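Working notes for the structural subgroup meeting. M.R. asked for a predicted model of this chain before we commit to crystallization trials. I am recording the input and output together here so anyone reviewing the notebook later can reproduce the run.

Input as submitted:
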Amino acid sequence: MKFSHNKLSCDTEIYYKDKDIIVRFFDSSKEQEEDDIINLVIVDPGYGYLCLKYKGDAALLSGFLDEDVFSSDDYIDAAISFIEVLSNSVV
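Returned structure, recorded in token form:
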């Protein structure tokens, strides 16, 4: 799945556990191929991730977004909205 907002477009990986969601933002062209993984210790962290964890009726949002990529509040708000939309499809 792609995340797109204004001039930013990146790949995402989405992980679900019950109602909890983790979204990883990255550039798939920079990902290591299986043959490259042998003895590989350092991995490109991508553009960041967001984690939405439910505690009863409330939810906690945590994560890290690369400030060079998510360079304004507008981009950060779009990433938060992205994970909120995903959570509405799970709840």
